[in-house]
């Protein structure tokens, strides 16, 4: 039986592919796993039925028989550990790939989330305009470090891994702001990740949800 | 050969046990692993020798023979996967424990980091005082959800796991602010975690570093 993931019925980014279900779709595509999607409205996410699967009322979740998981990082790791294609065979290389998963979500995405929070929850505050450059500089600080580490490497550590999948997903959130393009090697890295057929299929699948729901809405 | 971790030579929290090396010390203690510590000054953290181990210039790192890891979450997971004591045997329970590791670091710690950033990097800004309650409310929102999920359970999902280790570490960062004590079951949960002999040994080890360096400084 195919696993079931949850995704937004109404994509908050209007099909730009930035919501976290795309990370899970991408991991399933990289490992060649079929999956089903259960779409949730914003109100359904807050209801007890979903809270039983996801105590924080977020997306995505992952159901596979008796197992229910949440947190896109944990789901991607579970998929990567259950199927070949996203983690190296060598134990040390595997541990390093997992290090990059955590680095993507905790060290690089942390200031990106601050930027998103500032835009969505504090854009009406008197400090909004003056504070934005501070957050952008904190993001640039991390990207400088990542850029210096990467040089002209194709992927973070040897072959493409779940670490690259999450890092590229985080970087893609910065493209519209223009910050990603300030770092040529990181912009090229994100574009390489995006060009992968598995990413393209994941992106197309989320876009199809948006398109079908916006035409009737 | 014992693994080597890095820790602050001068504890930024003056031995309160909130820096991330404590999470790694705790995991090593829970699994009964001896370890060595290399202390780093703030300036040494920014130097090329450390950047080769940790591209973002942070702590802790973990060296074990040829393997070098960073990101406390990744290091704790590596320790938990290499030794018994921090992850259940059952595959599904194991995946759920890992879900809680990611939930602790990404969903619960994210607003906690915002609070720390606001205090350390923006305390001199004109918006500092007015903005603080907004961040505190975002933390309360997450703790409400976690508190509702936990009820009077002893640990997050069955036996104590690496998920509890990280979640309790995140919650302990909130004790001084008073926010943790607003949630009686979470305060009791953090206190239970803190009372574990392995935590006590990890805490004492970091405190000894602070004490020995402050008496000579």
Automatic annotation (TrEMBL), chains A, B:
The record, for InterPro entries, names:
Glutathione-S-Trfase_C_sf (IPR036282), Glutathione_S-Trfase (IPR040079), Glutathione_S-Trfase_N (IPR004045), Thioredoxin-like_sf (IPR036249)
Looking up PROSITE patterns in the UniProt record yields: GST_NTER
CDD domains tied to this protein: GST_C_8, GST_N_GTT1_like
Single annotated GO MF: transferase activity
Q: Where is the GST N-terminal domain?
A: 8-87
Keyword line: Transferase
Q: What protein is this chain from?
A: Glutathione S-transferase family protein
Q: What is the lineage of its organism?
A: Bacteria, Pseudomonadati, Pseudomonadota, Gammaproteobacteria, Lysobacterales
């Amino acid at each position: 039986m195919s696993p079931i993931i949850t995704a937004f019925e109404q994509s908050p980014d209007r099909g730009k592919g930035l919501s976290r279900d795309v990370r899970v779709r991408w991991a399933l595509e990289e490992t060649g796993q079929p999956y089903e999607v259960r779409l949730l409205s914003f109100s359904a996410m807050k209801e007890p039925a979903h809270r039983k699967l996801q105590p924080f009322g977020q997306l995505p979740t992952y159901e596979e028989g008796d197992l229910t998981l949440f947190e896109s990082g944990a789901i991607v790791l579970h998929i990567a550990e259950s199927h070949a294609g996203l983690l190296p065979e060598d134990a040390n290389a595997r541990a390093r790939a997992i290090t990059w998963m955590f680095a993507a979500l905790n060290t690089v995405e942390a200031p990106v989330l601050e930027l998103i929070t500032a835009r969505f929850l504090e854009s009406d505050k008197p400090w909004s305009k003056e504070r934005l450059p501070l957050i952008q500089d904190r993001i640039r600080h991390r990207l400088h470090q990542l850029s210096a580490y990467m040089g002209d490497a194709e992927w973070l550590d040897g072959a493409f891994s779940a670490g690259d999948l999450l890092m590229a997903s985080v970087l893609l959130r910065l493209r519209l702001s223009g910050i990603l393009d300030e770092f040529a090697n990181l912009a090229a890295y994100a574009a390489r990740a995006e060009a992968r057929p598995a990413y393209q299929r994941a992106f197309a699948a989320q876009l199809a949800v948006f398109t079908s729901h916006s035409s009737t809405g």
